[in-house]
Amino acid sequence: MATLYDTWLNRIDSYYEERYYEPVIEELCQYHGGSADARDGKGKFFNAGYEVFIYAFFLGLYYGERTPLTGPKRKFRMEMFTWGRKSTEAGRKDYTVIQKYIFAALIAKSDVDLLAVDKGELSLDDACDILMTTLNEYANTGFQQLLPPKQDQLNTKLLENTGLLDMIRNFCGK
Prior knowledge:
The protein is mostly helical and 174 residues long. The chain has eight helices and two strands, in the order H-E-H-H-H-E-H-H-H-H.
């Protein structure tokens, strides 16, 4: 029998607003694969697009706001369980622990009635829909922090050595 966690790991519906693709995803990621050497040679912080999505999620979580997605959306077409697969790149760390932290945060920050799930009154798919909405809305807030409204490029401080870490530190305890 599938669990809520297993069902969530198999979801493919992580979305972000289209407007963040070029100025954030393309700017920060060696999107669509490539080696770590290619990423570093191009000055990219993240390898895969989902890595910046994970960062944006935690940024939004630490910021403490959920922002519904408006306008055209883009989708990461990878199941959550494939995020950080070791088989695709030598030396890549397994993302299992990060996946568990994300799931725990989603349970804590969502209105999923776990008792209703356990009783069969709320289906696993419906519960996952709630979790994915929460995930996407926190990530959307994070993307808004990376690229505030009415700006078309990233803040140059973000691109400094500790810029990404400093951004999360600024929101801790907000």
